[in-house]
Protein: Glycine cleavage system transcriptional activator
Organism: Klebsiella pneumoniae
Amino acid sequence: MPCKSARRLQHIADATRMVQIKPRTLEVSLATLPSFGCHWLLPRLARFQARHPQIAVRLLTSLAVVNLQQEGIDLAIRMGQGDWEGMESRHLFADEQLVVAAPGYRGGNLPTTPQAIAASDIIFSMESWHAWCSQAGLEKPIVPSGLRLNDSNLVLEAVRLGAGVALERRSLVAGAIARGELVQLTAVTVPYPWHYWLTVSPQAENRPEVARFIAWLEEEIALWRQQISA
């Protein structure tokens, strides 16, 4: 009968083989806005997971600017000017606003001129129409009067349901336009004043799995830029 020491050595050997067979799962945690996470990031994450199946991604969404170090979060995609104190910020891309509606809005008789859009059922978000109206040559700005929502996800769902037209960021609607769920009503667009930035926690800067995620994200953004400029 084998002695206890021999059995312990066998247990260690078995555990070592299990580690070799099933490598330790790495994790990257990322905080972002709910709308960006839903409409831009989430549809692309499968490509990262296919390339790096050993790296788990923990996605946290919030409208608040979280403290990465205090919350133990590796990365954050934020909108602003890139001037968050104590954080390295990398510029990702600039966005623009455009007017969209569902293909079946008003029975498919869609408004395609600035004047017709101004006379439509406007779904208002937190975004102002003033810059778009000026770019479109409208004498009077469009002011909130109908349905007003404080979340882009709700705005886009209302548009998809045919409740009206909305002014939204291209990053949030490009996928739905490509799938035929939404229609861009006019070529008039305006730059969005806030850009997307990636902030990196000092605690995560030197971790290989974080570097791999950042490299993948930069590839996806380069592809995104090609798609929207085509």
